[in-house]
Structure formats: structure tokens, C-alpha cells
Known about the structure:
Elements: E1 8-17, E2 20-30, E3 35-39, H1 46-53, E4 61-66, E5 69-70, H2 76-80, E6 83-86, H3 98-103, H4 107-110, H5 118-130, H6 146-159, E7 164-167, H7 176-191, E8 195-200, H8 203-208, E9 212-217, E10 220-225, H9 227-230, H10 233-240, E11 242-248, E12 254-261
Parallel strand pairs: 3-8, 3-9, 6-7, 7-8
Antiparallel strand pairs: 1-2, 1-4, 4-5, 9-10, 11-12
Helix pairs in contact: 5-6
The protein binds adenosine-5'-triphosphate.
Adenosine-5'-triphosphate (ATP) binds at residues 17, 22, 40, 42-48.
Amino acid sequence: xxxxxxxxxxxxxxxxxxxxxxxxxxxxxxxxxxxxxxxxxxxxxxxxxxxxxxxxxxxxxxxxxxxxxxxxxxxxxxxxxxxxxxxxxxxxxxxxxxxxxxxxxxxxxxxxxxxxxxxxxxxxxxxxxxxxxxxxxxxxxxxxxxxxxxxxxxxxxxxxxxxxxxxxxxxxxxxxxxxxxxxxxxxxxxxxxxxxxxxxxxxxxxxxxxxxxxxxxxxxxxxxxxxxxxxxxxxxxxxxxxxxxxxxxxxxxxxxxxxxxx
Length: 262
Ligand SMILES: Nc1ncnc2c1ncn2[C@@H]1O[C@H](COP(=O)(O)OP(=O)(O)OP(=O)(O)O)[C@@H](O)[C@H]1O
């Protein structure tokens, strides 16, 4: 079957750690326009799967392709222009300005020793505009709040030119307001044709902001589909051993309410 244009596709991935199958026959596709939320309990293998999709870990079996081209045949630089990783917010070792941090996203285009071109500078400014962080551009990254750092790291990914963004718990450590604003920004990026894969420990966020949800359990993708279909109380029970009820607002939004834990 032909992959959707621009899609990243993993088929039948197997990955072992110390003889244990962390990923065991995983199929997953990320296409432009998707917001795909990957849920799984602690240790389920979400980060391992992300690292395979980024070409940082080589699966023991199965294949990963980008536009039908095997990932393993693409250079790191070619890959970085197509797929960007947005890590969890981290402490920066040096007080680079926000503009300089976003500019690091241009390295796959001009290399570490060449001066940035006009096109590089334009891409950096466009990414800063897209994330609405122009007012922060001169501030040292080290002095930013967690939410501002997260926006800076997303802008860096956009400056990279990649259309597929892979995010490890993008709202972790953010206050409620910043969480909601970040999720809203992700929706806008998806509407602009970016494909976003994010891991999350919040089923509520997957209900509120995802076009698809994939559940990783015991090494396999147990379900992959629209949030309202996949995120049943039974599925939450199986994943987290928590009983929940789903409350729906008149606007159709949903939230999980715990009804009991093991
Ligand atoms: N470098 C490593 N060496 C050995 N085992 C590892 C290593 N990294 C991860 N593991 C194991 O692989 C399994 C999957 O880990 P992974 O980090 O992918 O899970 P996760 O779903 O991202 O977890 P969390 O939600 O807690 O971040 C876990 O059992 C973990 O202990």
C-alpha cells in the first residue's frame, strides 16, 4: 500500500531491551495534518518508539519509511529537514538568546561552521512569528519560563524546516493556562499541514487535542483511531488500572473523572 504523501510509517517494529520485547509488532503512521497522541503507562515504550521513529534507535525487526523511502537510507541531515524532535523543556547550559536557540534549527541547512544565509535568517524570523514569541526574541533562553521555553523549542523545530514534529510530553511542567495555549498552537500547526506526534500522560489532553489516539500497551499498539472511539473507560482501565467515567460538556468536550484505582 502506498504511504500518504509526506507520511512517516512504522511497520511491525520489534525492539528488545535485555531480551524483553519493548516494542512487539508496532504499526504506526504519522501523516501531515495529524495530531497523533501516543498514550501508554510508564515504561510502556513510548520514548523507545519515538527514538526509533527519529532514526536514533534501530529496531531489531520491522521497517520505518518516510514517503516510502526507508529511514535508514536517509542521511541525518536529510532526516532533520523532514522530522524534528521537540524535547521536554530542559535547562540550557548557556544563556543563548531565544533567536539564537531558534537559529540552531538551521544547522541541518548550513552546517556548524558556515555563516547563516539570508534564507536561514528569514526561516528563523518566520518560525518566531508563527509561535508568536517575537517579544522574547532577545531574551536569554535560561531566563524563560517553562511555557516560553517550550514555544522556543517548537519554533526551533519549525526553523529546521521539518513538517513532522515529534514531541515528548510537550505540556509536562506547564501550568494549566500554558498547557491549553500550547495545545491550541499545536492545533493551528496541524491545520497548516504539520504532522504532530506527541506522547502524553493526560488522556484528557488526548480527548481535547488530537485527531488520532494510539494506545501502546505491552509492546503493541492496541488501538489507533479517533479519540472519542479509542478513549473508552475500558481502554483507560486496561492502560492505567484506573476506573473512570467520562463527563461531556454540552459543547461535546470530554473529561475523565476517576471512579476508583487499584
Ligand atoms: N537505556 C536503556 N537500557 C535498558 N532498558 C531501558 C533503557 N531505556 C529504557 N529502558 C526500558 O525500556 C522500557 C521502555 O522504556 P521507555 O522509556 O521507552 O518507556 P516510556 O513509555 O517512555 O516510559 P515513561 O512514560 O515512564 O517515560 C522500560 O522498561 C525501560 O526500563
